[in-house]
TrEMBL record:
Keywords: Isomerase, Rotamase. Residues 105-205 form the PpiC domain. It comes from Shewanella dokdonensis. This is peptidylprolyl isomerase. The keyword Isomerase applies.
Length: 249
């Protein structure tokens, strides 16, 4: 760990000392925002200060470390400011030969109630879990699904009243995906068994499968190109920057 920290420090100092860094200036607000974001992860200022102390840091030390980090990021951004544009014809050929990357299956806006099965415990055996999910299913005829999910579901989504949000069909358990087309909007399924246990599912909206047009895919293709080009150019620049140091050592 100490070696990694030392190597990171040497890399940062090399970047900051590069000729390209001469014209890079950080706005004071950038540093203040970064410090505030760090502090916001803690429940209080005291907890923030205690965490810094535990890591052998003070707030000035943190500011200095964040400043170097932000400055390095800004320098690397400057180095790759003039990215080569993505040729549209090249992008179109990629789009045509990789259709799976621009298509998706149906989307379902789902809620669920899950009763898990763990045969190591009598209270979570398959038989008991099935009995419990059937009891909850009966309650859905007269009670709100969201309230029942909050009360009975053993899925983390219970805290969101059972809401899973938009779910892509081919990423769902196949047992659930097979049932959804048979349901009406708002209808609660019968218990569905998967490797996790027993589910009750309800959907409120469905979006059909779709293949994005090239026009729709173009912004994503440009983004991917820019990310790859930026990473490549930064890697090449760093290699040239560190080459004299590598020769000397």
């Amino acid at each position: 760990m100490q070696l990694q920290v030392k190597q990171l420090g040497r890399l940062q100092q090399a970047i900051i000392g590069a000729p390209e860094a001469a014209e890079v200036v950080l706005a004071p607000q950038q540093l203040e925002t970064a410090v505030a974001e760090c502090a916001a992860r803690f429940e209080s200022v005291a907890a923030f200060t205690a965490s810094l102390a535990k890591q052998g840091l003070s707030e000035p030390g943190l500011r200095s470390a964040l400043y170097d980090e932000l400055l390095c990021e800004a320098i690397l951004d400057k180095v790759t400011a003039d990215l080569p544009p993505l040729p549209r014809q090249q992008a179109y050929e990629y789009y045509l030969t990789h259709p799976q990357q621009f298509s998706r299956s149906r989307l379902w806006y789902l809620k669920q109630i899950l009763i898990t099965v763990n045969n190591d415990y009598a209270e979570n055996s398959q038989e008991v879990a099935y009995r419990r999910i059937c009891q909850v299913r009966e309650l859905t005829d007269s009670q709100d699904f969201a309230e029942l999910a909050l009360r009975y579901s053993e899925c983390p989504s219970a805290m969101e009243q059972g809401l899973l949000g938009w779910c892509e069909e081919d990423k769902l358990f196949p047992q659930i995906a097979a049932v959804l087309p048979l349901l009406q909007i708002g209808e609660v399924s019968a218990p569905i068994e998967t490797e996790l246990g027993f589910h009750l599912v309800q959907y409120n909206e469905m979006k059909p499968a779709k293949i994005a047009s090239f026009h729709e895919a173009w912004p994503l293709l440009v983004q991917r190109h820019n990310e790859r080009a930026k990473k490549y150019l930064q890697k090449q620049w760093l290699s040239r920057l560190l080459m004299p140091e590598a020769v000397l050592t």
